[in-house]
Amino acid sequence: MDAFACTPPPKPRPRAREYGVVIGRLDPGPHNAITDVAGVRVGHCTVIAGAGSPAGADAAGERAPGGGGAARTGVTAILPHEGNLFRDKVEAAIHQVNGFGKPTGLAQVAELGQIETPIVLTNTLSVGVTYDAVVRYMLRDNPEIGVTTGTVNPVVLECNDGHLNDIRGGHVHHEHVWRAIAAAAGGPVQEGTVGAGTGMTAFGFKGGIGTSSRQVSTRAGLLTVGTLVLANFGRRADLRIDGVPVGLELRDWHDSPAAPPGSVVVVVATDAPLDARQLGRLARRAAIGLARTGSTAANGSGDFVVAFSTTRRTPHFFDTPLRTVPSLIDDGETAGLLFAAAIESTEEAVIDALFCATSMKGRDDHYVPALPVPEVLEIMRRYGRLPRT
Q1: Which of 45, 92, 206, 277 is the most exposed place for a label (fewest CB within 10 A)?
Q2: Can you name the residues that pair with 99 across neighbouring β-strands?
Q3: Is residue 387 part of a domain?
Q4: Does 7 reside within a domain?
Q5: Known catalytic residue at 27
Q6: What residues make up the domain containing 356?
Q7: Do residues 123 and 165 touch, judged by C-beta distance below 8 A?
Q8: Catalytic residue among 36, 166, 303, 352, which?
Q9: Which one is catalytic: 213, 263, 309, 345?
Q10: Is residue 158 included in any domain, yes or no?
């Protein structure tokens, strides 16, 4: 058996819309996913191994090097287009909502307004190995890096899954990163307890990966905004779904796990020809979508948004310093629709992460329950958001 194989993730539960929970007023794309932006692909590698109880303790009672506890972690990769990202970079921007995080590559994105590698998500203590794996992946396809041209800037972001995952065990390896990248595909995106979201907790329930999209008809044509989130944040009492204070209603439901303050990563893609400045504006609106779900950007949270445009490209090699690229004028109506699309798709992506995730037992027998969907739906009915059956 391949020691570095990806584990089949738990079967995701139905998404919020399948129960009639509709977030916002704009229409989603065909898959209601970030991959509705043409060319964008998503891949996961899930790593689940070991029992919930710790094992391999040394004489002092510390967990043995390499970890004997439960692996509940993984990798998620987002590829902005199907070509060579180093040679054909996408316009991009970042927004730091709260800086208690350990991402890599964001300073250069802020400086140059470009992304030149897959965007890879994982757990906090696996950033280093993930960064190295992305470097090796890029060197394989670009022999000129570090020889006849400059180096490369991997974009790696993280959340802390240490409540469920034996995070000290180093369970993410190069092969897991490469497999997530190789698995990247368009179409439907698996959500919930998968990839980087495997061990994440949100609002006192099992969190993880969520995605959503919105399409808007503008004077520039039909434009798409798609969002993917790694949800690992929030207190149960703060959770709101479509404006309903679900968290307050469920505050006495099951014990809320004693997970530390968490974080969230938001990746926003669009086919609108936005430059880095405009993408920064779009990224800042994603934070409003987080707030609608109950995020307060807690003191110990690392909350980051990365936004990119698939139709604004910059070649690494060029014959002339001048380029002609499509550019969207800051038209109030169009910008307003794109802003709303980013807000709504971010909000729904978080809610889908909760709806799709499955209950999990992990490190030291820690247990995190899944969102109790029947109870949530009844609360939504009482608040008039769903028809009574």
Answers
A1: 277
A2: 302
A3: no
A4: no
A5: no
A6: 16-382
A7: yes
A8: 303
A9: 263
A10: yes
Q: What is the pLDDT along the chain (389 residues), one digit of tens a residue?
A: 577 899 999 999 999 999 999 999 999 999 999 999 999 999 999 999 998 654 433 333 344 444 457 999 999 999 999 999 999 999 999 999 999 999 999 999 999 999 999 999 999 999 999 999 999 999 999 999 999 999 999 999 999 999 999 999 999 999 999 999 999 999 999 999 999 999 999 999 999 999 999 999 999 999 999 999 999 999 999 999 999 999 999 998 887 666 667 899 999 999 999 999 999 999 999 999 999 999 999 998 999 999 999 999 999 998 888 888 888 999 899 999 999 999 999 999 999 999 999 999 999 999 999 999 999 999 999 999 998 87
User: Which residue in this structure is represented by tokens 């310093």?
Assistant: 321
| DSSP-derived secondary structure letter, 32 | S
| Catalytic site residue from 295, 301, 309, 345 | 301
What CATH number is associated with residue 151? 3.60.70.12
Token pair for 136: 């090796």
Calculate helix-pair angle for 174-182, 127-141, nearest 10 degrees.
60
Integer Cα distance of 330 and 179 in angstroms: 40
Told to judge if 263 belongs to the known catalytic residues of this protein, a careful annotator would answer yes
Active site residue 301: yes
Count of domains observed in the chain = 1
